[in-house]
Amino acid sequence: MPVQADPAWSVAGNAAYTERAPALYELHANGPHDAAGQCLIGNPEAQKDKAVSTHLSLCFASGPNRGSVGVFYSRFKNDLTEYNTGRLVNDDDEVVASAPAMR
Prior knowledge:
Elements: E1 3-4, E2 9-20, H1 24-28, E3 30-33, E4 38-41, E5 49-62, E6 65-77, E7 87-89, E8 95-98
Antiparallel strand pairs: 1-2, 2-5, 3-4, 5-6, 7-8
């Protein structure tokens, strides 16, 4: 929604809200993922991934001269992501090494 401040300057802004339900593997995975070389463990209690985003920009246009500057902000809640637990297991699901969790 651009707003013309004067013939050369304008301001534009946007706001958005999005949601994403967890995928089945994010809820119920419990075992090796051979292609990725990982062991995935789902979370059946996972909630919707939600985000609110805003964008604001200041634009200049005068003859052949054009430019803009903008800022963008997103706030996530219940972000669904994979992270390294630091556990290494063998094919029998026995822990063979444990390192500090990295997130």
